[in-house]
Design goal:
With 190 residues, the protein is an alpha+beta fold. The chain has a domain at 85-189: Roll (Nuclear Transport Factor 2, Chain: A). The chain is 47% helix and 26% strand. The protein has 3 helices and 4 strands, in the order H-H-H-E-E-E-E. A 4-stranded antiparallel sheet has the order 1-2-3-4, covered by helices on one side. A hairpin with a 2-residue loop joins strand 3 and strand 4 (181-189). Helix 2 (92-101) packs antiparallel against helix 3 (105-124). The model has no long low-confidence stretch (mean pLDDT 83).
Length: 190
């Protein structure tokens, strides 16, 4: 018998990764102790700054909206004080309609009713008035409601007067916001 030689393939050697350097746990622990508070402080600081910026921006926006509403109410109040203190004997209904067009439904109905009783008397006397707002100010305001105080000189002409007369009126106009417009809701002579 002849012996046959069997060639055995060498078995693949398991690959071994180079051994990782041992990590000194005390260094890692020190790093974590040092890094965590610093990172946390930075994160908290960034959040505080961002929150403050957002809060400040919202506050400025709200103040800006309130100031814009106040200025618009003052303009409207001044125009309405002029309208309500001006009356044309030649076309009294146009004077009434001008005020009603800028009033709330409630005040418009009241004003139309009151004016309906007064117009015949004014027409008979051929009375006309021209209002001039000398000064006006906003006494109270929110973005939806405002109270305007107006100092008005009203030049009155009629058949009973030889010369025009100036009546000085002080008015309180309560306005409410309707979309982009301000509407007259209440009117009081002071």
């Amino acid at each position: 018998m002849v012996a046959t030689e069997t060639k055995l393939k060498p078995s693949p050697r398991p690959r071994t990764e180079p051994a990782a350097e041992p990590v000194d746990e005390s260094k890692r622990s020190l790093w974590r102790k040092w890094l965590r508070p610093k990172v946390l402080a930075v994160v908290v600081l960034v959040l505080l700054v961002a929150g403050g910026a957002v809060f400040g921006w919202l506050r400025i926006e709200r103040l800006s909206a309130a100031e814009d509403a106040r200025a618009a109410a003052l303009r409207s109040g001044t125009e309405l004080a002029t309208m309500i203190s001006t009356f044309d004997a030649k076309d009294p209904q146009a004077s009434v309609n001008a005020v009603v067009a800028h009033a709330t439904d409630k005040f418009g109905a009241e004003y139309r009713d009151t004016s309906g009783k007064l117009v015949p008397v004014l027409r008979q006397a051929q009375a006309s008035t021209q209002g001039t707002v000398l000064k006006a100010a906003v006494a109270e305001s929110t973005v939806d409601r405002a109270v305007v105080i107006a100092f008005v000189d009203q030049t009155v002409r009629n058949t009973n007067l030889k010369e025009p007369r100036i009546d000085r009126s002080r008015m309180q106009l309560t306005l409410v916001r309707a979309g982009d417009d301000w509407r007259l809701d209440e009117f009081t002579l002071l």
